[in-house]
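Fold it.
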Amino acid sequence: MNHWNLQARLTLAACLLAFVVVALGAFTRLVDAGLGCPDWPGCYGQLLWPNSETEIQTAEQLFPDAPVDTDKTWPEMVHRYFAGTLGLAVLGLAVLAVRRSTKDDQSGPRKLPIFLVGLVIVQALFGMWTVTLKLWPQVVTLHLLGGFSTLALLWLLFLRYRRNSIAAADENRTVNLAGLRRLATVGLIVVVVQIALGGWTSSNYAALACIDFPT
């Protein structure tokens, strides 16, 4: 197995983890658990969510204006822990990419993994602001777009590693997709706008503003 194939597999694993994080974020939103924990990054001052009666009493003493709802605390914290794991995975990919590029092979992507680290840090800040700003719609929507951007860029990184892996296995094989670039760009813009509009509608609790469809 060449090292490009190894990095492609690790990046694919990170893609799957990012997909889980996005899905957990959607689930957290659907069960209205975005403020299940009134603080960040812990939950009522704990590493895990309060579960026992003693822990719940202590938590409500610390946050008297935020009664504990165990049906909402665990989705929020599970999402945070998966997101934190994704952050570590992205950091690992960036370190591996930099180490590879400082050796004899300079052909691998380096800027994209480093950019992803910055994006994950920004995502963590948006996660914090989502709580501290009480689900401010602008922050919630940008947090959603950041999650999808992380997933999309990890997939792009996987494709680049995969391309290098194929090239290493067969130097005579070339793939020309230039003709699809314009169409793919248009499709990407449409999808991003649609996701942003959906996130904006959800963050403003406007999904049921019109009780019929399509009018």
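Residues 3-177 form one domain.
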